[in-house]
Amino acid sequence: MPTTATRISQINLVIIPATDQDRSIAFYENLGFEKRTDIPFGGRYRWVEVYPPAGTAGIALAPPREQDPVGVQTGISLSTDDIDATHAELSSRGVDVDAEVQRMGDPVPPMFFFRDPDGNSLLIVQTS
């Protein structure tokens, strides 16, 4: 089947539920993320975006709709060049991290999950 090009060029944002946006902003800023957007929308809501310092794709911290769950497996994968140092650093900051770095052997890189204040899981993978 022939492929067709689209005008989609990159991943811009992923959205995760945040029941307390200020708490989530503080959490991600503590991880070194930058808050690049924090604006009101829809009357009583805020649109908040945080990014890794050199990142072009960000995370929107959005209030969940009533029917949406929180504490989800986000499918978000973040990269680090030193998985052990990152695991130790996050653990020392009180972040809910897996007890150990997962080491499955080649070709799977070392990785671990952490959870934000709402219990949303994100994965950190060593990329080098």
Order of helices and strands: EHEEEEHEEE
Name the beta content range.
35-45%
CATH architecture tag of the largest domain: Roll
Q: Structural class, please?
A: alpha/beta
> CATH homologous superfamily name of the largest domain?
2,3-Dihydroxybiphenyl 1,2-Dioxygenase, domain 1
Quaternary structure of the protein: single chain
What is the average of the pLDDT values? 93
Give an overview in words:
The chain is α/β, with parallel strands linked by helices. It folds into two domains: about 55 residues, 2,3-Dihydroxybiphenyl 1,2-Dioxygenase, domain 1 (Roll); about 60 residues, 2,3-Dihydroxybiphenyl 1,2-Dioxygenase, domain 1, CATH 3.10.180. It is about 15% helix and about 35% strand. The protein is built from two helices and eight strands. The strands form two sheets. The chain has a four-stranded mixed β-sheet with strand order 1-4-3-2, covered by helices on one side. The chain has a four-stranded mixed β-sheet with strand order 5-8-7-6, covered by helices on one side. A hairpin with a 5-residue loop joins β7 and β8. The longest helix is centred in the first third of the chain and has 10 residues. The model has no long low-confidence stretch (mean pLDDT about 95).
